[in-house]
TrEMBL record:
Alphabetized Pfam families for the sequence: F5_F8_type_C (PF00754), Laminin_G_2 (PF02210)
Disulfide bonds: 911-938
InterPro entries found in the cross-reference section: ConA-like_dom_sf (IPR013320), EGF (IPR000742), FA58C (IPR000421), Fibrinogen-like_C (IPR036056), Fibrinogen_a/b/g_C_dom (IPR002181), Galactose-bd-like_sf (IPR008979), Laminin_G (IPR001791), Neurexin-related_CASP (IPR050372)
Occurrences of domain Laminin G (ranges): 162-342, 349-526, 773-938, 990-1178
Any one annotated GO CC term: membrane
Organism: Oncorhynchus kisutch
Gene name of the record: CNTNAP5
Topology of the protein relative to the lipid bilayer: Single-pass type I membrane protein
RNA-binding keyword on record: no
Compartment(s) where it occurs, according to its Swiss-Prot or TrEMBL record: Membrane
Protein name (record): Contactin associated protein family member 5
Family: Belongs to the neurexin family.
Location of the EGF-like domain: 528-565, 939-977
Amino acid sequence: MEGVSSYNMMEGLVHTGVSSYSMMEGVSSHSMMEGVSSHSMMERVTGGWSPQVTDRHPWLQLDLRDRIEVTAVATQGRYGGSDWVSGYLLLFSDTGRAWKQYRQEDGVGRFVGNVNADGVVHHKLSHSIRSRFLRFVPLDWNPSGWVGLRVEVYGCAYKSDVADFDGRSSLLYRFNQKSMSTVKDVISLRFKSRQAEGVLLHGEGQRGNYITLELHRARLALYLNLDDTRLRFSSGRVAVTLSSLLDDQHWHSVLIERFQKQVNLTVDTHTQHFRTKGEGDSLEVDYELSFGGIPLPGKPGTFLRKNFHGCMENLYYNGINIIDLAKRRKPQIYSGNVTFSCSEPQLVSTTFLSSSSSFLSLPATLSASGGFAVRFQFRTWNPDGLLLSTRLALEPQRLELQISNCRLRLTHHMSAQQKEEVSTGEGQQVNDGLWHSASLSSRGLQVTMTLDNEPSSTMELGDHMEAGDSLYFGGCPSLNVSGCENPTLAFQGCMRLFSINSQPMDLNLVHQGRLGDYKELQFDTCSIHDRCLPNFCEHGGQCSQSWSCFYCDCSGTGYTGATCHNSIYEASCEAYRLTGSSSGYFSIDPDGSGPLGPTQVYCNMTENKVWTVVTHNSTDPVRVQGSTLQKPYIMKFNYSASPEQLMALVSGSEQCQQEVMYSCRKSRLFNTRDGSPLSWWVDQGGERRTYWGGFLPGVQQCSCSLEENCMDMNYFCNCDADTDSWANDTGVLSYKEHLPVSEIVIGDTNRTGSEALYRIGPLRCYGDKSVWNAASFYQESSYLHFPTLRAELSADISFYFKTSAPSGVFLENVGLKDFIRVELSSPVAVTFSFDVGNGPVVLAIKSHVPLNDRQWHYVRAERSVKEASLQVDQLPLRFLEAPSEGHLRLRLNSQLFVGGTAARQRGFLGCIRTLTINGVTFNLEERAKMTPGVSAGCPGHCSGSSSLCHNSGRCIEKNSGYVCDCSQSAYGGPSCKEGVSVSFNRESSVTYTFQEPFSVIQNRSFQASSVYRGNSRARENMAFIFMTTQSPAMLLTVSTFSQQYIAVILARNGSIQIWYHLHVDRRPDVFTPRPSSLADGHLHRIRIHREGKDVYLQDMNLKYSLSSDTEFISIKSLTLGKVTVDTMDEEVMQAGSKGFIGCLSSVQFNHMAPLKAALLKRASSLVRVRGHLVESNCGALADSTIFHSQSGEEFGRGRGPLRNASQSNYAVIGGVVSAVVFITLCVVVVMTRFLYQHRQAQRDASIKEKEHRTNLETAYRREAAYQAEPAYRTEFHLHDSHSSTLNDNREYYI
């Protein structure tokens, strides 16, 4: 290398005699390729590199003569021909032996090459490479030609100060004074390590301060504490860890930035921000900082922990170059056994790329002592894979060493049916990505297996053992050679340091074809990649991985999906009501898939409005005395939701309010000479508010002033009259931008006889502004535009639409190359398409019925780094897995267009409502008001929030009214409100047999590796109402063809039990939510929701965790009542034999309603009824019954003082007596009129009942006929335009 040009000048590195290499049948070919000095000159260079066509794995290697900081590369095809490379890998190395693959942003390793021989493709590296050797490995080339390559490298010279630590050495930097106290620290260094453990940096002080930076399990751990003596000892220390696989013998950069307690830790390209523990802001370190280990005081070179073995360079502590001081032998540096050049060990790895076809065959050398001994090291993420297989001299015996269920297992196959096995311990998992040493040796009649430094496992043999001719590492050849068979999967990972009978194996000879054989291997590099760094699992999901992909465990997070992106909870109480729920405690997630987590609220659904109630820590009346303005009484309210959750709830609600009660005796609110308030409250934003309940913001008045009924009209509040008797100022705060009340301050209860009693009620909100936020599009060229969609790694888009147009774009957002689009591509198809840099991806769902039928249809599209999915109504879900190696980030830069495109073509004509992206609901109505061709809202009967159809019923527009489709509901009737109820006796049962549905359509091949077949999204929803006095009793059971089952029973004591038997070879999970008896003759509602391992009893506000997240596979049937099968546990069978005596109502399992199916008398192949069933009305009783299974809480209005609130007053008593007499007379009059009308109503009721049964039967028959069709079924109840509930008969369609 004779010269280096600056990258900023876009000039290439000048090469003189740069060598190119390729492996051609094991022979290293060498040719000369003259370098060029600029990018423009590259186009005029003739020739180029091209390997022989017989080369198995060609590559081009550049020796830059010294370590260079490479910032860009460029490629070109071979001059004057049809040879070029269309895709390649870039590897780098300091030694030319141990290589590392360069990965671009998003972890993409593949570089896009050329499409012809003449064009130049330039790649600027997202992070520079500091290395001497580069290797270009062609992956694809011109299919009509061959590999041809010209390359140019851009960069600049790189100089560094290097120190080598041999595992016993250290650098000690001694301060000029006794201790060093700093408020700000900046520490930077680069290192490469030969081990997974070792201390890089340590310093501590006598007051409990310390800083330690060390490698632990190949991850970097930073311990930092400021003045907290409780954390001085190691047992209390908490580390911040970052990165992984740092023992790969390649350089890694570290930067620690601290200002007071705020710390940034950066390793390579990953940064973690955190706040350190401790009471102070300064780091006080006594005497010295040590690098490479933690020496004992006064004994340099003696370490408490394992010291660092490797190299460091450019080590800076607050601007001081530590290595430079050591090289110049400055007195403040002690450098024991440290050298200043980096020694390069020859630990060369080999990567086994395929889990089905990779293998390495090595000859079994003879052992002088008899037997054999094999040793090697390996690292992997996979829980299964073959490590070693060899045929024994005594055929057909063979030995297999494999990873099975994350543990090491040795198997001696003596015959096809006979084998013997030994395994390592439960805690010795080997699929952690770390290097593990495995050895296998035979001596006499024993064979010994050893893992790392753990105790060996020994297997006794019946005869002496000698290995066959060959040892197969990692897998077996495709042909059954010498009895080698892959037990499950081939090994996918890295191996190194092979030794057979104490002779090390040179893999260069294997690579050159001079020793053994191989397939699907990558030599001289370990291509292991941590797919959990960064962690793409959202909302606290736990990341695990195999060699080729990662998985997210969402258990306990409240979220689901491939990356734990989707909330399992509804966004509001209004949404729960639309699913058929009744009043109770619920977890809501106001921002859906956004960063805010779920919170628990009480949903009051007893009124026309659905109220969301959020409590706080002080809802009872509180008495206050002795407060002044100088020392006021202050109460801060802590709500059951966070401030961010409260803000989201309030902003998404139509109206919010909070009752405020203030009872007083000689305690004023505002009555002062200068007008300054004596008491006030603080809103959600921390602002002081001086208006009281019932009045408008900004004015120091109370509700009595607004109503003009204050006890003294000279004042604006009753309490400001300042009387000796009790007065009251109670009202409702309803300006929602100020709610909830976060604090109250009372400052006038310190005078003689002065006293106050206050109560701040819970926050109460109703309405969900997002549910019916809609816009109508009348022109194809019209659209709504919003800011650019911020969804680089994940995006979920959901909305409803109705239209009569055959096609149109719902939304679109584009970037330079990337885009995302959802559209109605035909009258029966919805398409979701996007491109993140890997090429366009298209998912489409076709419906059996037209989607432009002017009815509401639901669309949900989701894209994550793991997969993409599309859902339309209840049609089968379609999804597509993302490639394991590819771009991840969706980069957009234009506006988001809704209802059209930037080109004003293919616009949507119709209505769109409830558009939600990543938990944020877009205000379509507000934007539509200022956009031509678009109007706010949507015409039609089914376009409002009046909820004409209940309990998951679907509203369908008709020319003369609307229809409720109750087919997806367990309810019936005109509005899907009538519970379908049946009375059972002991012998009664209803069995619904499932037709195995194709519930998911997959755009992928099932020939992928079965490693982690998982991320199954086990989910069940069950709901029913029951009433009985019998116990034990069987309520419901669901069984599968694989003997799994779910059972809900009443035990002997009447308590409800829920049984989940998901594994045949394990005990079932049994939950008893309440020990009290539910066989009490009262109605009880049960709603069970399972998501993975989590089971939620929503009406009881309980959550349980299963021992497994296994999904129900091949559901066979659901049975209500008596069960006679003998494949269940004894207690369940006993309850099943007793059957059920009582009433069952509104039974639903997922989208199936078995009681409704039984009453409709559907095909006998689906429904089987045994015993006597009688239609009941307990479902109607349920609407007016308080369910005893709910743990409700009454949120009443505030009451007056408990004592001393008033004096005995005969006038008040007389008024009460008069009121009672008047009410009694009114009741007598009403009852008289009621008895008169009741006799007439009895005759009418009998006629109406017959008519209703006739209509119900007709509707059931209509639904049964519709069910027989291949399209989805519908239960219709017609509401004509003359219905009294509809005042406007006009109807508009778009």
